[in-house]
Design goal:
There is one protein chain. By secondary structure, this protein is mainly β. Helix content is 8%, strand content 36%. A hairpin with a 7-residue loop joins strand 8 and strand 9. The longest helix is centred in the N-terminal third of the chain and has 6 residues. It is globular and about 40 Å long. The model has no long low-confidence stretch (mean pLDDT 92).
């Protein structure tokens, strides 16, 4: 018998496989944010923001590099080998981890509900983002 309320552990990583991680998600947290800001739109990032204790970097910490801009709060990490952005520290939740659902193994996107977010007008809309679980 399956417990439908049990957390689900997803694995993911970058394109070349150097960076690998796991993230634990509660069933009611299967909503992701599709931000239209300049960087998210270009990267195609779909945001799943989780508490740090729900994220585990399994390998590849030494291949990650960081890009910052504007306020410098967000730490946009990416694999320096393949250039993928599997997760980062978001400006909206600097004590959390923002996982790119498109970097989860398999076709997991269909398990999530995508919510648009007007990141082009970030300051006016940031308060609409849910706290990290």
């Amino acid at each position: 018998m399956t417990n439908l309320d049990a957390p689900i552990t997803y694995a993911g990583g970058c394109h070349c496989g150097a960076v690998r991680f796991q993230v634990v998600v509660d069933p009611e947290q299967h909503q992701v944010v599709d931000c239209n800001c300049s960087i998210c739109r270009k990267k195609g990032f779909l945001h799943l923001i989780v508490a740090q204790e729900r994220f585990t970097l399994l390998s590849g910490g030494d291949t990650l590099t960081t890009y910052t801009f504007n306020t410098g709060t967000a730490k946009h990490t990416f694999c320096r080998i393949c250039g993928m952005h599997p997760f980062y520290t978001p400006r909206s939740h600097p004590d959390a981890v923002d996982v790119n659902v498109r970097c989860l193994d398999g076709d997991q996107l269909s398990r999530f509900q995508v919510q648009p977010f007007d990141g082009q007008n970030w300051e006016e809309n940031v308060d609409t983002l849910k706290p990290a679980n």
